[in-house]
Amino acid sequence: MEKYYLDSLYNISEQHGMFCNITLLNVTGNNTGPKSIEDRLLEVLGPKRSPVFLPISLVYLLIFLLGVSGNLLTCTVISKHKKMCTPTNLYLFSLAVSDLLVLFFGMPLEIYDLWQNYPFPFGEGVCYFKIFLFETVCYASILNVTVLSVERYIAVVHPLKISYVATNKHAKRVISAVWVVSLVCAIPNTSLHGIYYLNLPEKVAESAICSLIGSLWIYNLVILITTACFYIVPVTVISGLYLGIGIKLGRERHLSRGTMRKNLCRRQVTKMLAVVVLVFAICWAPFHIDRLLWSCIMQWSVWTDLNQAVYLCVHLLSGILFYLSSAVNPVIYNLLSTRFRECFWDLVCTHTEDTTAGKDSTPSDIQPTGHNCGKHWSQHGPASLWNAFDTLWSPCPDELKLF
Predict the structure, then answer these.
(1) How many angstroms separate the CA atoms of 335 and 333, rounded?
(2) Is pLDDT larger for residue 348 or for residue 184?
(3) What letter does residue 369 receive in the DSSP assignment?
(4) Angle in degrees, CA 391, 263, 244, rounded to 5
(5) What would be the CATH architecture of the domain defined by 14-334?
(6) Mind listing the GO molecular function terms for this protein (predicted)?
(7) CB 293: neighbour CB atoms within 10 A?
(8) How many Cβ atoms are within 10 Å of 84's Cβ, its own excluded?
(9) Which of 294, 103, 40, 12 is nearest to 95 (CA)?
């Protein structure tokens, strides 16, 4: 007969929607015979491969392809077209960079964890990097969305002050500050994590997991503070800002023709950014609920079968929406921004025509026709659907487009 205890073992990657096995154990067992290390690892940590590995990996692959192509396109369009290099678009560029960091560096580690929950073979350095990366982009994303909303609020409600705020130099300073704050605020939670090993009774190398190893109460405090400062407060502030914008625009219905055209343009940009904020808030809500739920369960030791089932559902949803939030913004830009679509097709058609011309023509025959391509797309073929959508979405006159 053997009796052993494994207290407060948590194989959890809660901040990123990862689908590792979650085990909170104070195990007491009556065993009729000795067990191998593999049997004990299976009993405590569960199977090495997640049972949802295949379906979740396929979903992640689709999100990866959509997110990487869309965000790279966003960065390329903003950087290659001078007319797109505006303060608003610089904030969107910064948001796209944070999304690319998640997709390029975070998702591969996520998929590996699904394929092999343990042991974690990359060492403590990669464990720190993984936690630090996700914490940083989490904070940078919400701060980027917040400063973007503040910029829109000033542009619409206090247009006389926008001359100072709406400059590329000011936007770059704000973006730099956002990333510095995000990097600093990611340190506390990162410092609480590391490589955890089971002791049965000696340390088992095959049980290595990247997990919480610091004080639980400090971790819970960090989660409460970061959830308040980097989700609840920003979302509340942003909601108030867009409410103020809506009230301001609602009062400006009876205006001169020229002022009305400018107002339509501001409405289009504001509506597009409001959709970005709404999608962001929806996608990130399960992420923070996931963290708080796990923190509460650990704090009060109420890990029942019902709690576990609820937590796993939230955990699954938070992971998918976390990565989806990194892929959906370019789709929104393409749907709601005429200028973005034009620049997109300028880029695509220029590349296509250059390639075709390089094969079929001499260098002297090649003419730059990219900008005409974008206009052609806006006037013919399937683009008529976009034009109809633009009409419903209060389009800007071409000379007043901000995005």
Answers:
(1) 6
(2) 184
(3) -
(4) 110
(5) Up-down Bundle (1.20)
(6) neuromedin U receptor activity
(7) 18
(8) 23
(9) 103
Determine the angle formed by the axes of helices 233-251 and 123-157, rounding to 10 degrees. 20
CA-to-CA distance for 253 and 335, rounded, in angstroms? 25
pLDDT of residue 399: 35
Q: How far is CA 130 from CA 118, 125, 185, 379, in A?
A: 15, 9, 15, 47
Sign of CA dihedral 173, 179, 183, 189: positive
How many CB atoms sit inside 10 A of residue 14's CB?
A: 24
pLDDT at 391 over 60: no
Q: β-strand 193-199 against 203-212: which pairing, if any?
A: antiparallel
Q: Is the pLDDT of residue 369 over 70?
A: no
Mean of pLDDT values over 37-64 = 85
Which residue matches tokens 């095959």? Answer: 206
pLDDT at 24 > cutoff 60: no
**CA-to-CA distance for 197 and 206, rounded, in angstroms?**
8
Domain boundaries, the chain: 14-334, 343-400
Task: Label residue 234 exposed, middle or buried (CB < 10 Å: 0-12, 13-18, 19+).
Answer: buried
Which two three-digit tokens encode residue 219?
């971790």
State the CB neighbour count (10 A cutoff) for residue 180: 11
